[in-house]
Amino acid sequence: MSESGSVHLRAGENGQPVLRTFYDEIGGHDTFVRLVDGFYRGVADDPVLRPMYPEEDLGPASERLTLFLEQYWGGPGTYSEQRGHPRLRMRHNPFRVNPDARDRWLAHMRAAVDGLGLSPIHEATLWDYLERAAFAMVNTFDE
User: What pTM, to 2 d.p., does this model score?
Assistant: First the structure.
């Protein structure tokens, strides 16, 4: 054990620390691309959510979400390198995110998560975060 009391797994007796992140465990970049692509397929035709994306093409939004989720789950830190601190509430504040928008977002994300075929523990871990994040983004209860 280290002085802090934590255990560090190593690759071999004197090897580098082995840290498997959630990002690694579920398949890394390819899995997050599949998740986000599936999500935006639903958003593309959603009459409530689609107007919240100012770009004509959803590609830039898709890239931002992919980078954010990868970083959050232990992948590359590209999101922060390019955009700074995520500040999710601030970035979503210009948009009316009411319970209907939240529920639509969750429905599209649920379909995308279900399409990944993750193990039950990984699916539950991912879904727990996505659900909490969606509820946290609500900024109005006006219809």
Answer: 0.83
Residues 48, 53, 54, 58, CA torsion sign: negative
Total residue length of the chain:
143
| pLDDT digit string, tens, across residues 75-131 | 999 888 877 776 766 676 777 889 999 999 999 999 999 999 999 999 999 999 999
Contact (CB, 8 A) for 102 and 138 = yes
Whole-number Å distance between alpha carbons of 133 and 135: 5
Pairwise CA distance, residues 84 & 77, whole Å: 10
The answer to whether the beta carbons of residues 143 and 66 sit under 8 Å apart is no
CA distances 136 to 18, 32, 46, 49, Å, are 33, 21, 21, 17
The SS3 assignment for 10 reads strand
Which two three-digit tokens encode residue 128?
């727990």
